[in-house]
Structure formats: C-alpha cells, structure tokens
Amino acid sequence: MKRKEIVTVGKGKPVKHYDVIIIGSGPAGIFAALELCRQKGLKVLLLEKGHDLEKRKCKITKASSGCSLCMPCNMVSGLGGAGAYSDGKLTLSSEVGGRLGEMMDHDRLNRLIEYVDSLYLKYGAPTKVYGDGESVEALKRRATMAELKLIPVRIRHMGTDRSRQVLRAMRNDIGNGIEIRTDTEARHVLVEGQKISGVLTAGGEILSCDYVIAAPGREGSDWLSREAQWLGLKIKSNPVDVGVRVEVAAPVLEELTGALYECKLEYYSKVFDNRLRTFCMCPGGEVIIEATGGDDPVITVNGASYSGRKTENTNFAILVSTDFTEPFHEPIAYGKYLARLANILSGGVLVQRLGDLMDGHRSTPERIKRSVVTPTLPSAGPGDLSFVLPYRHLISIIEMLKAMDRLAPGVASRHTLIYGVEVKFYSSQLELSANLETGVKNLFAAGDGAGVSRGLVQASVCGVMAAREIIKRVK
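The chain above was modelled as a monomer; its predicted structure follows.
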C-alpha cells in the first residue's frame, strides 16, 4: 500500500482518538506507560502485537525437539517484551547498556537510572546488588594481565521467574490508568504535514492521536527501519553482534560471578583486531532457544537463570561486533543468514564441544555425552560451527576463550560447550533529539528497537524520557 493510500484509508469512517499511543510493551513501553498512567485526563493506549503476560507460553519443553517458529514468538513478543523471558539483569551504570550516554551528560543519565531502579524495587526487584568491593578491583587487575578489559558494573539480578512477577505488578498498575490492547499489531504510523496523526493497525483500524512512542523492541527493529525509510527519516546501521553461547561448569566462573554476577569482559583479537565482548552471563542458568519473530523468523540461542533454582552450569555469550560500510546496509539480513545456517545444519540450535572444534571434528551425540559439562539445552543438535561462522569470527572467539582461561582456568576446557548462533539485532539507529523525538513532530522512538538501548535499564529510561517530554508538552 502506498503512502497516500494509507493516509486516506479510513476517510469518512469514525476514528477513535487518543492523546498518546505507545507501540510495544517491552521495558521502554512499560515505563512510558507507568509515567503516563499517573496523569489525570490523558487518554493513552498501549498497543502490543503479542499476547498478554499470562497468555505467553512457549511450546518448547525439555522433551521437545526444537522451536516451531510460532507467530508471534512468545519468547520475544507480548506484554513485557523479550525482558519477560530474559535473565532479568538490571545494569545500574551509564557506561554500558546503550548509547544514551552519548546523548546526555552522565549525571543526568545516572539520575534517570536511579529513578528507574527505584521503580523496579517498588514492584518487587531484589535489594541485593553485585559489583562492589575490593575483590572486584583485584579481578580487574588479573583480567588486565590476561589481555582482557573487565568492566565492573553494579547489577541487580531479578531472574527470569521474578522478572515476570515484577512485570505482573507493573501491568496491574498500568491497567488501572490506561487502555491496554494485546494481540493488536501496529502496521503503520500515520503522518500529516510532518506531524504524527495516528496509527493504522494490521486489522485496518485507524486510531488517531497527538503523540506516538514507538518502542517495538529488538524483535520489531526491522519494522521500525521500514517505517523510518517510508517516512524519510535519517537512519544509520548499528554494528551487528554475532557470536556463540558458551556453557561451562559453574565452579569455573564461581569467583567472578560471586563478586560480579555479570562478568563484562572486552577483548580485541590479535589476528583480526575484532572487538569481542561477553554478554548476558547466567550463573547456574540454562541455555534457551528463542526466535527472532518478524516476517522472516529464524531460531537463535540465548541464556536464562532463575532466582529460585540453579543448574550445575554457567553460560554466557561471546559476541563479535562488526561495523559494515557502504554499499552494505542490511546487518539484520546478515545476522539472520548466519543463524539460518545453524538452523539448517542442526534443525534449530547447534552445539559443539570446544575440543572437537579445535581438533576439526564434528561433535556427535556420543561425544556430547562423554563431556564433563552436561548441556542444559538437550534439544540442541551436535554439529560443527566451522560450517556456520565466518573464519574471522571463529578465530577471534577461540582467542578470547583462551584469554579468559588465563583469568578463570577451565573456560577453554575441551569439555566446554559452544552453542550457535547468538545474534543481537540493533539495525535501525534513528537520528533523534535529546528527548528521543524523530524528524516527525510528536513521534518518539525508544528502546532496543530504535538502536538507543541494549538492555532493560536504558530501555526503561528511554520510556521515561519520552513520556516526560509528552507530559511537559501537554501541560
């Protein structure tokens, strides 16, 4: 449908009007809604294409053979966004978790982070914080000796189970002040004279409004990219993060996770000078499957851990960041291509012992069974990651594992399990004002899907920022 056709689709038909429409109910959308629901007289609608929180059920079980690519994926879509099934880490630092630190001074950002943290605590997040103390400085020095950069950050860990409890409490409060519509997809935002005028749903309903906060999450980043191009907004491609999830016996990283919980390490490979980083460390956690969702879904790997139960393993991702230059401008397509290779070879997620990878052998079910580390994702198909990942990525990941082994002996054990592929899609980085407004008046973009944040806390801050600017304008 062409732009002119979209704008005139509902002419002559009754149109429901709202002051604000929020697209997406991940952390950015939820926190925008928490700010707006306290404003008397504001008519606000929260649109979510996935299911409500209690109806989000993933069909994957321990006995299942793999992902059936449900549309939309309950792991990443629905009220709460991907955060509902995440490890539930609240990274209380302006240094990591997004690019808001590039858009404002760190004092202001830290005040916003403190405010967001206070709301998480109010709705049930635990009081314990990791990342402080003398032991952290000692670990930082040891990491330096291993050619790694350890970035200590204060972290509050909720766990996947408690994350859902916190979201449930937030949802109850929001529902008392604004309208929530799940299972309703926003097809297009509507603009008249470079000013927002409404939203067209996938069902053909036109909802008019004065303000829109587009917070579609990582799963909706390709949708937001298409909308931005259609509206003529300036965008640039973020780096694509591609890598693997590593699983080791929990004692291997116990010293690090006991002090830091999330051990954030950076490494630059010697051969290719690639930047690599650890991401989403899950002590006593499980490796899980998720789907990217969208119009062209693929199966990827992730990690989760729980506040109420522990496994004997710890898992974490190693991601390689790649900046692409002209003429290439489709990092999402590139990441999906690599994930699809793993899907083809394994039927879903592929797993390989590090020893087999180093020896040039394909892992088999028999070799996996002989491993000291028992996989927490039994549906993963044994195979060979060298058929999936580019040579420079694979060599760089092996280099970083060896460096980590000097910091925590056992990380580069032959029994270590490597799962592929883990991909983080942050394609659309819109040109935004300091208050997250796009080039279209009263259209704001927030969260991971807008390329602004990379985690729960900064995504939540985005929602607060956009909502406060709208409240200021309305008043």
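The CA atoms of residues 187 and 238 lie 24 Å apart.
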